[in-house]
Write a structure and sequence with these properties.
By secondary structure, the protein is α/β, with parallel strands linked by helices. The protein has two domains: about 150 residues, Rossmann fold; about 210 residues, P-loop containing nucleotide triphosphate hydrolases (Rossmann fold, 3-Layer(aba) Sandwich). Helix content is about 35%, strand content about 20%. The chain contains 17 helices and 18 strands. The strands form three sheets. Strands 3-4-2-1-5-6 form a six-stranded mixed β-sheet. α15 links the parallel β16 and β17. The longest helix has 17 residues. One of its GO terms (molecular function) is ATP binding. It comes from Oceanimonas doudoroffii. InterPro entries: P-loop_NTPase, PhoH, PhoH2-like, PIN-like_dom_sf, PIN_dom. This is Ribonuclease.
């Protein structure tokens, strides 16, 4: 473990829970696992929680590396085993219960304190390489810096954007008139659609299924593909988009119109809706689900699910079936259904009928693993609190004929370890932006009420 360019990364438990194979992400540098981290993984692995699976994967990964190592080799560090410029560093386990006297800054009553003490010990002992504490716990990072640790970092290997303002909004707003900028272009009619071909220099950085709007009241389009310096887009027409309806709901602005276009297109298998509270994400998704399930018969059922804090413990104590247990967590959906049917003479009767007719099911994210969901409209609400791996678990459940709608507000993250740039919602927006089967729309503007709009802008 020599070399001034090498670093020693001391990993906190939450890093291994966030990504169990994270030890391979540090390339040629060295990884140190404090004994306290193994103890915490051991406590977590037997809980009836989704995170327990990640703890078990992390433990098995460490066992695969250390199974033939002697105690002396484990303390000194063993090679991670991957070459070719990947993980060619070493990994060691260090006992943090009995550090030499004088190195402990904090008392060792808490696990976090013992891990920080270990990082401080390595910083003093090994001047030949940097000691870097890696944790997703913001408060722990502050404590470590306050205790004198020079290098403290968040784990960011899954971070695709450095600033949330750089995140793709799913549309490109062009100043003035788009057609004045283009001039002549090649056009072709396919059925009821008109498809134009222009030079991709006009729209640098455009991606598939990105919407195009300008300052006029008549132009709107969606990019179909890019190839050989050419960009093809379908002419949607702003007036036509604003006139579309789903289950009696009509868009109130162009952003809702773009979202509705993506939601009602069966060829787009995943729609990602982001935006502030009250912009219409859930309302548009639910209206589209009913329209395409009941009116058009494209899907057989609607599954509604969301991330629920501490769901594993609390779902068992609520009375009733899984749907009834999930009802308190999915009150936003039932509120939306009431809005859609508030004009009906007997709203309760209408809701009961619609719930049966559309076969609307409320499911827990925990029970989605291992399923294969076919011919279903899946609405995954509150995605901002999910990690990339949790979203992958749900997305890979979707089989043939299934449409997935992921909605969330990056300003309302409740997770202890996620920020807007590390949220799974941000991750999938970036990862799927060039996939022809997905579309992403940021719904600008609060449509819920004058009060909600003022609060969003001024509080």
């Amino acid at each position: 473990m020599d070399g001034y360019d090498r670093k020693r990364f001391i990993l906190d438990t939450n890093v291994l829970l966030h990504e169990p194979l994270s030890i391979y992400s540090f390339k040629e540098h060295d990884v140190v696992i404090p004994m306290t981290v193994l103890e915490e993984l051991d406590r977590i692995k037997d809980r009836q929680k989704d995170v327990s699976r990640d703890a078990r994967v992390a433990i098995r990964t460490l066992e695969d590396i250390f199974h033939d190592a002697t105690p002396e080799q484990i303390i000194a560090g063993v090679p991670l085993g991957l070459k070719d410029d990947e993980a060619s560093g070493r990994i060691a386990i260090i006992s943090d219960r009995h550090l030499p006297e004088g190195y402990a800054v904090f008392t060792d009553d808490e696990a976090d304190n013992r891990i920080i003490n270990t990082a401080l010990y390595l910083q003093k002992q090994h001047g030949d390489s940097k000691a870097v504490l890696v944790t997703k716990d913001i408060n722990m990072r502050l404590k470590a810096k306050g205790a004198g640790l020079e290098h403290v970092e968040d784990y960011r290997s899954d971070q695709l954007v450095d600033d949330i303002r750089l995140l793709s909004k799913g549309f490109c707003h062009l100043e003035d008139s788009f057609w004045d900028r283009v001039g002549e272009c090649e056009s072709a009619t396919h059925g009821r659609e008109v498809i134009h071909t222009v030079s991709d220099e006009l729209l640098p950085g455009a991606h598939i299924n990105q919407y195009l709007i300008d300052d006029t009241d008549d132009f709107a389009g969606r990019v179909l593909d890019k190839d050989n310096g050419q960009l093809r887009f379908v002419d949607l027409g702003r007036e036509r988009m604003m006139g579309r309806k789903a289950w009696g709901i009509q868009p109130k602005n162009i952003y809702q119109a773009m979202a509705l276009d993506a939601l009602l297109d069966p060829h787009i298998e995943m729609v990602i809706l982001t935006g502030p509270a009250g912009c219409g994400k859930t309302l548009l998704a639910m209206a589209s689900a009913l329209e395409m399930t009941i009116e058009k018969g494209i899907y057989d059922r609607v599954i509604v699910t969301r991330n629920t804090p501490e769901i594993a413990e609390s779902i068992g104590f609520l009375p009733g079936s899984e749907e009834e247990k999930m009802a308190p967590w999915l009150a936003a959906i039932t509120d939306t259904l009431e809005v859609l049917h508030k004009q009906d003479e007997c709203m309760d009767g209408s809701l009961s009928y619609i719930m049966g007719k559309a076969n609307i099911q409320f499911k827990s994210v925990n029970f989605m693993r291992g399923r294969s969901i076919q011919n279903t409209f899946v609405l995954l609400d509150e995605c901002q609190n999910l990690t990339a791996s949790q979203l992958k678990t749900i997305i890979t459940r979707c089989g043939e004929g299934t449409k997935l709608v992921c909605s969330g507000n990056l300003a309302q993250i409740d997770s202890n370890y996620l920020t807007p740039v590390t949220s799974g919602l941000t991750y999938i927006v970036e990862r799927f932006k060039d996939f022809e089967g997905s579309a992403n729309v940021y719904l600008n503007g609060v449509m819920r009420s004058r009060l909600a709009s003022f609060a969003e802008e001024n509080l």
